[in-house]
Design goal:
Layout lengths: L5 H11 E6 L4 E8 L3 E4 L9 E4 L5 E10 L4 E5 L21 E6 L7 E11 L9 E4 L11 E4 L4 E9 L2 E6 H8 L10 E10 L2 E11 L4 H4 L7 E5 L2 E2 L3 H8 L5 E8 L7 E7 L8
Antiparallel strand pairs: 1-2, 1-4, 2-3, 3-6, 4-5, 5-6, 7-8, 7-10, 8-9, 9-12, 10-11, 11-12, 13-14, 14-15, 15-16, 15-17, 17-18
């Protein structure tokens, strides 16, 4: 059986990559991982309704948000379209530095744009906590978020999420596999965030920018706003996203004080969040 060439592998990936439009927030990308209509994208892409998906041949369909992991910034969509081509998921723990990778997405409205590069590192990124990222020198632009990062065999190893210090960052697909098994992370605040790097007192620091606030959630009751950047909890700065999750752990009524930036980001504000008073939808 002949080994498929690079062009054939790239074309299959293009046909497994979709354009995701959510409300009026713009466009992103996604990748079909199951032929029955299961699509992975970034949580920050699928933040507004309605969500529409467009596949490579121009067909469009409304998508339902099935699952979301706000901590790892990934989400699962489902659509009802026949004859979808799914891309296989690789074991992202097997990704090695120097490996050739392919990124597919819809940057600036161009459907199925392709870029290649090599893996620079796999692991932590300074300022973004202890979580593992696949770091590659692929060229990403607005619209690439949620699209696949694949190896030379056409297997998806990561979901492209953002650019930091000129390097593309992708969520490893093993995190995607855990979400598909129902093992995603959740936050009782009722927010969807994206990690960002900020500068405080001359040092780089982790911040969590709020992209969505769930209706009737603790965050909404506390008057947090889209664009606010959470920088700390109970007087401690965040060294990782998991730091916030640990502060929020527990049951019963309790108060957590969040530090955040708003507007010109000149001053750190503090808000008291009351948890445990009502059931809050997981973000």
């Amino acid at each position: 059986m002949p080994v498929p060439g690079f062009g054939e592998i790239a074309e299959k990936l293009r046909r497994s990559t979709v354009r995701v439009s959510a409300g009026r927030r713009g466009h992103g990308s996604g990748v079909i991982v199951k032929p029955e209509g299961v699509i992975i994208t970034n949580a920050h892409v699928a933040t507004s309704s309605p969500i529409e998906v467009e596949v490579w041949d121009g067909r469009r369909a409304q998508a339902n948000l099935s699952m979301r992991d706000a901590v790892r910034d990934i989400a699962v969509l489902r659509v009802s379209l026949p004859e979808l081509l799914a891309a296989p998921l690789a074991d992202s723990d097997q990704v090695r530095v120097g490996e050739l990778v392919i990124a597919i997405g819809n940057p600036l409205g161009f459907m199925g744009a392709l870029t290649t590069g090599v893996v620079h590192a796999v692991g932590r990124v300074p300022g973004l906590g202890p979580m593992k990222w696949i770091q590659a020198d692929v060229r990403l632009a607005p619209g690439n978020s949620g699209g696949p990062l694949a190896n030379a065999r056409g297997q998806v190893v990561g979901i492209n999420t953002m650019v930091a210090a000129g390097v593309g960052l992708a969520v490893p697909t093993n995190a995607v596999s855990r979400l598909l098994r129902g093992e995603g992370s959740h936050t009782p605040l009722g927010i969807v965030t994206r990690p960002v790097q900020i500068t405080a007192r001359g040092k780089a620091q982790l911040g969590l920018m709020i992209l969505e606030i769930i209706k009737n959630s603790a965050a909404e009751a506390a008057s947090l706003m889209l664009g606010d950047i959470v920088t700390g909890a109970d007087g401690r700065t965040l060294d990782s996203i998991e730091d916030l999750e640990r502060v929020l752990e527990g049951t019963g009524e309790r108060v957590v004080r969040l530090q955040f930036l708003r507007g010109d980001r000149a001053n750190v504000r503090t808000v008291a969040i009351r948890l445990g008073l009502q059931s809050v939808a997981a973000a």
